[in-house]
Amino acid sequence: MQRHRQRWQLLTAGLLGSVLLLAGCATPPPAKPVSYAVLLDNPDGTTGAITLTGAAGQVLVTRAGFGAMLDGSAQPYSVDQARLNADFGAVLAARPHLPVTFVLYFDGTSTTLTADSKVLIANVLAEVSNRAAPDVSIVGHTDTLGSIESNERLGLDRAQAVAKLIADAGLKVIDLSVVSNGESDLLVKTPDETAEPKNRRVEITIR
């Protein structure tokens, strides 16, 4: 289940109004109050780039942890973690968690998780508990063994079994969606009446 992610993250300090107001607190070269931006890695570890254009020129930043002044008056410079925390700590702390998806698999035509998937339940519960107002979507799936109607019911049973694990852990979920796709959304395309372990699954998206 693919999700759109930002190609880069930009933190700005100084006269940027709706983004962050930290005028005068930054101390990258030159040693005077400036407004500057810092490029960070994406959550998946990739790094994009930013171009800053101002009255003094244009500068391209391509390295994570490097900043540049918004007026384009200096080449990129390294911003250490202490300075990043001092200038942008509040913004970093307030960033929302990105959605996370887990896929759990089941034995045969049952609602019993495979041994490997049972191990992942702790990670699912931890992700839910780490969010202030979790929104959880649980979608059940099956392979093509059995009728369309029975697989629709089995997919829902699987999704509800996972929802119960979250409820039994005492976790509060603001919005919970539990649905079944039965055999209509196969991860591995197969003919009818085909056993396929990768299709016997529940997909959990936590926002």
Q: How far apart lie the N and C ends?
A: 13 Å
How many distinct beta strands?
A: 10
- Count, helices: 3
Number of discrete domains: 2
The residue-averaged pLDDT reads: 84
CATH architecture field of the largest domain: 2-Layer Sandwich
Described by the principal axes of the CA atoms, the overall outline is: elongated
The biggest sheet, with number of strands, parallel, antiparallel or mixed sense and barrel status, is:
4 strands, antiparallel
Record the strand order, biggest sheet: 1-2-5-6
CATH homologous superfamily annotation of the largest domain: OmpA-like domain
- CATH topology value of the largest domain: 60s Ribosomal Protein L30, Chain: A
Beta-strand fraction estimate: 25-35%
Radius of gyration, CA atoms, in whole angstroms: 24 Å
| Unreliable stretches covering 5 or more consecutive residues | 1-10, 12-32
Order of helices and strands: EEEEEEHEHEHEE
DSSP helix fraction = 10-25%
CATH top level label of the largest domain: Alpha Beta
The structure class reads alpha+beta
What is the compact description of this entry?
The chain is of the alpha+beta class. The protein has helices at residues 81-94, 115-129, 148-168, and strands at residues 9-13, 36-40, 50-54, 57-61, 66-69, 77-78, 100-105, 135-141, 175-182, 201-206. 24% of the residues lie in helices and 26% in strands.
